[in-house]
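User: quick one, sequence for these tokens?
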């Protein structure tokens, strides 16, 4: 998500982050805005920062320094170090030549550029621990666009907001289920979100703007996060054949068995157990949509939800619990408790090598979903 920072200098701008598509688009937009109109094509000097080796990387930084020190002939001047990889924690970024060049560039920026010279830096591989980055962040109008980490708790809610913002720009209206499914299938990747929204937009044409879950399933391919979600979804629906097929597919694609157990199976079973227990103890109704379960939990006393999984900000991770609450009616509490025990046994078998990985996962799922 973008985290713009107020500018310390009106002629130094940086766009960085792991979300490559957004970084490149935003950098291009800023380059168009910052380029001096009166200087025409002579007013912009672009230096390709994607270096193949350390020597080239250092040379590109020195080219940037020379360009910033050369005063413009007509009006103002924009120097753009584009798609730089010298800021990365990599052999190129760690080389002495690159580090010395970046130190010289930082010193130049700290001393101040000529009033009619502007500097734009764009980079998708950035080590934020480095002296150059820390110094740049104090000087520049800094824009950070990092990908959402779909392995971390609570990413779904942030991704859903992102999907809603991008869909609104195109005038697309998602149903609740379609929005949730689209969010999980695209995995919070901005570039994939935009690509898939464009596909839906073109398919619908200028008439209908409504997007339902069936259309999303038909047109949107699964990301890794989406496939893992579908495994959890199959377990929640008690679709044994579907769950076994997805386990085989994910293992064939190179996913680790222990990873599938801890990222997809255990969280699903745990959320089902937590949701079922709350519904039984407090006689909670099955939610009509996953997001609606949050309103239900708000009515419970704090001690009733103190044990629920939390996001980094301390709030309850409602996304997974909401999906579980909508499907928990398919299970008895004892079966879910047994499912957690089966997951523990599978974990031991995988760590100790007692059982072939696929068989360990299949046994755990069969114990939970068998009739």
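Assistant:
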């Amino acid at each position: 998500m973008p985290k713009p920072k107020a500018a310390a200098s009106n002629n130094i701008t940086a766009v960085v982050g792991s979300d490559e598509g957004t970084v490149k688009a935003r950098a291009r937009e800023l380059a168009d805005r910052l380029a001096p109109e009166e200087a025409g094509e002579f007013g912009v000097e672009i230096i390709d920062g994607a270096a193949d080796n350390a020597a080239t990387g250092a040379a590109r930084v020195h080219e940037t320094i020379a360009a910033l020190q050369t005063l413009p002939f007509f009006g103002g001047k924009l120097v753009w170090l584009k798609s730089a990889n010298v800021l990365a924690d990599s052999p190129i970024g760690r080389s002495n030549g690159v580090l010395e060049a970046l130190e010289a560039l930082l010193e130049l920026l700290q001393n101040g550029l000529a009033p009619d010279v502007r500097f734009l830096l764009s980079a998708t591989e950035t080590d934020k621990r480095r002296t150059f980055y820390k110094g740049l962040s104090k000087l520049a109008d800094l824009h950070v666009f990092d990908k959402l980490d779909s392995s971390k708790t609570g990413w779904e809610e942030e991704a859903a907001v992102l999907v809603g913002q991008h869909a609104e720009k195109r005038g697309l209206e998602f149903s609740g289920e379609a929005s949730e499914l689209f969010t999980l299938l695209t995995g919070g990747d901005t570039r994939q979100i935009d690509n898939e929204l464009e596909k839906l937009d073109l398919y619908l044409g200028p008439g209908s703007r409504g997007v339902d879950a069936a259309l999303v399933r038909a047109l949107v391919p699964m990301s890794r996060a989406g496939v893992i979600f579908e495994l959890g979804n199959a377990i929640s629906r008690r679709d044994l054949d579907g769950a076994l097929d997805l386990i085989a597919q994910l293992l064939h694609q190179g996913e680790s068995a222990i990873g599938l157990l801890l990222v997809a199976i255990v969280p699903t079973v745990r959320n089902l157990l937590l949701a079922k227990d709350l519904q039984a103890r407090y006689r909670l109704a099955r939610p009509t949509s996953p997001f609606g379960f949050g309103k239900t939990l708000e009515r419970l006393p704090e001690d009733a939800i103190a044990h629920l999984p939390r996001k980094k900000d301390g709030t309850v991770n409602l996304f997974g619990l909401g999906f579980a609450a909508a499907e928990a009616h398919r299970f008895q509490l004892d079966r879910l408790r047994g499912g957690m025990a089966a997951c523990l046994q599978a974990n031991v078998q995988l760590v100790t090598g007692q059982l072939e990985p696929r068989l360990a996962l299949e046994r755990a799922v069969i114990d939970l979903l068998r009739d």
